[in-house]
Amino acid sequence: MTKFKIGRKEDTPEVSTASLPDIVFMLLFFFMTVTVMKDDSLKVLNELPNATVAKRLEKKDRIITIYIGKPQKKWEPIVGEELKIQVHDKFVNVSEVGSFVLSEINKMPEHVRPLCHPFTKSG
User: Fold this and answer.
1) 72 Cβ contact partners less than 8 Å away, ≥ 6 residues apart
2) CA atoms in the 13 A half-sphere facing the CB of 58
């Protein structure tokens, strides 16, 4: 005889939700450790040129960002309308840029310093 049951459906077991809080906290900690917060707020007007070819930088540990431009409207009464140099969150004079670059290079890992130092010859 056959063992087929006609008209009777078996219930599928429900999905266990006991591990969901663990998964949520694991994702939360992952994104908290991987996310990089922007350190600087832009105080100068920055117009990027149009690019025809773009290449993604592979090693961002060798980048020092310096912004140059006219101050934004809210900073004009304080610093004036002429071009300014911004490093991190402050305006600096041209004479201070060199010491800023050298201090940033000294903060980099030792294996990267010779590649970034402006006074060493590469190759």
Assistant:
1) 42, 43, 44, 45
2) 0
